[in-house]
Amino acid sequence: MTVGSPMNAADRAGSSDTLENLARVGLISYGVVHLLIAWLALQLAWGGGGGSADQSGAMATVADSPVGKPLLWLIAVGMIALAVWQLAEVLRWRQGLSASGDQRKKAVQKTAKSIGKAVVYIALAVLAIRFATGSGSSSSQQQQQTTAGVFGWPGGRWWVALAGLALVGSGVYHVYKGVSKKFLKQIDLGSASPGTRRLVERVGLVGFPGKGVALALVGGLLVYAAVTFDPEKASGLDGAMHTLLDAPFGRFLLTLVALGIAAFGVFCLIRARYPERT
After folding, report:
1. Does an H or E element contain 83, and which?
2. 10 Å Cβ neighbour count for 224?
3. Model confidence over 170-180: pLDDT tens digits?
């Protein structure tokens, strides 16, 4: 087997029409999940909420629909396809890890980013499968249980704090990505109409900062849980939404974040039509 074989296999996997079509389904699913989270957050902001304003609440909303279980399985398949898509990227950049200088730095960044995305997609796939099989539960409860378990590790408190800081960093990067319009590198608009290009730019400018604020809040709660040594403080996205609601002018701040998350969902839907991995 030649050294280039894994790279060639990764290229074939990444450019597979079947995988790309499944990844499109995943991007649509990812967009719908964000739209549902935004809707739940708006309900929370204006007094009509009942479900968790997070991924589990979105999955529960899908599960309660007349075609809930088939849709949840479709979401799971799409998320797995997205994870495989990102793992193929890891293999594509494998050779660059042994290089030097800027090429190695870029390979490390791309690899870390792809692995992080793959983990998120796999987690969403598992969540969808759990709700499809009737064993779904609150994401906030799961995060609290996970945090409590990590506290039991040697140096567990520091691991929780680092995870929280990583989420805060990711949130800040999402805000930067939106403001600097770097999100345009994720989507191939070569064949898109001028109207579509304007729409993508607008939803990206709103959506990425909106999601970034949400991620930063979740990370901040994790850091707070580590500082206070209280796993109940790590209440996930739903807890972040409630924290924002309790702040001064919280109802309006939560509405702005919800609209941002909705815009990010729209961006994912458009990206499914014009996918581009960079």
Report:
1. helix 68-92
2. 17
3. 999 999 999 99
User: What's the pLDDT tens digit per position in 143-195?
Assistant: 999 999 999 999 999 999 999 999 999 999 999 999 999 999 989 998 899 99
SS3 (DSSP) at 125: helix
Q: Same structural domain for residues 220 and 200?
A: yes
Q: How many domains does the chain have?
A: 2
- Joined together, the tokens standing for residue 78 give 């799409």
**253 to 42, 96, 126, 138, 187: CA distances (angstroms):** 11, 43, 31, 24, 29
Query: Which residues have a Cβ under 8 Å from the Cβ of 99 and sit 6 or more positions away?
Result: 107
Domain extent for 74: 1-137
Query: Are residues 117 and 173 located together in one domain of the fold?
Result: no
Judge if pTM exceeds 0.85.
Answer: yes
> Does one domain contain both 270 and 185?
yes
HEC string of 157-225 equals HHHHHHHHHHHHHHHHHHHHHHHCCHHHHHECCCCCCHHHHHHHHHHHHHHHHHHHHHHHHHHHHHHHH
Outline where DSSP puts E strands in the chain: none
